[in-house]
Specification:
about 280 residues, alpha+beta, 8 helices, elongated
């Protein structure tokens, strides 16, 4: 038994025969082949060769001490799609296009045999920190740390995720109904239906970036709010008394000199007026 590469407790799998790359410390995602490793081996080989921006990548491949195949996935940090949409609010048509075109493109590629998909739940479709949608599917023929009873065939999850996005679009948008109809047809259709849905989505609007709103944090340090006017006046007077009257950058005239000058000037005026009056 050895540590899982995150500094945590030992796991039941120890990778041997090749150097390992630790999985992401926030999202350990390890899969160990069951009796027949061919499914996991084929999935891992396909995913390693794909280099697809919108699919979870393979971080490492090895074997346990008993010889079972192990695949570590590098699940990115991000937010499940539904939660990301909650943060965003009502997405514009352009944002919906940005989020759903990659999903339908992956589905077309899967129908063409260009990419092999595993299983995934709707929460395995995430929006990463850069605002890109990523499908974190799971390999078949393996037991994993992030397996869920709600996992479906990833191809179906892709369509459900696309529908989830367009369900959030303003109902008054004239293209929303047309897109949802096409996506629904793709749910149980063949490649032709999926390709048609992709064309409808692409033609609905120009893509727009997914803009994250800042996440509130208890550790954000902000400048203090300006004091009330009476308090500000008192603070300004105290500053003048203690440091002098500002005359420019780095220059101040001591208040004592100002008061002495005022007293002398007043005395001179009084003396002049007295002299004029007596004359």
């Amino acid at each position: 038994m050895a540590q899982d590469g995150t500094g945590g407790p030992p796991t039941s799998a120890t990778l041997v025969a090749m150097p390992t790359t630790p999985v992401h410390t926030d999202h350990p995602d390890r899969w160990i082949a069951t009796d027949d490793e061919s499914a996991l081996l084929g999935w891992a080989a396909d995913r390693s060769a794909a280099g697809e921006r919108h699919l979870v990548p393979v971080a490492d491949v090895g074997r346990t001490t008993s010889g079972r195949l192990v695949v570590d996935l590098e699940r990115p940090t991000g937010t499940p799609l539904a939660a990301a949409l909650d943060r965003l609010g009502t997405p514009t048509t352009g944002v919906a296009v940005t989020l759903t075109v990659p999903l339908l493109e992956l589905l077309v590629a899967a129908h063409d045999g260009a990419v092999r998909l595993g299983t995934a739940g709707i929460d395995d479709v995430i929006v990463d920190d850069a605002g890109a949608v990523v499908v974190c599917d799971h390999p078949t023929g393996a037991d994993g740390s992030t397996a869920s009873a709600s996992d479906l065939d990833a191809a179906m999850t892709l369509v459900l995720a696309a529908r989830t996005v367009w369900d959030r679009v303003d109902p008054g948008d004239p293209v929303r109904h047309r897109v949802l109809t096409a996506v629904q047809d793709a749910l149980e259709g063949d490649r032709t239906a999926v390709r048609a849905a992709l064309d409808v989505v692409r033609g609905s609007a120009a893509p727009r970036p997914f803009r994250w709103s800042p996440v509130p944090s208890d550790l954000v340090f902000a400048a203090p709010s300006p004091p009330d006017a009476p308090v500000a006046l008192v603070e300004r007077f105290r500053d003048v008394v203690e440091r002098g009257i500002p005359l420019g950058p780095g220059r101040r005239l001591p208040l004592r000199r100002v008061l002495v000058g005022v007293v002398v000037a007043v005395g001179a005026v009084v003396a002049a007026l007295t002299a004029v009056g007596s004359g």
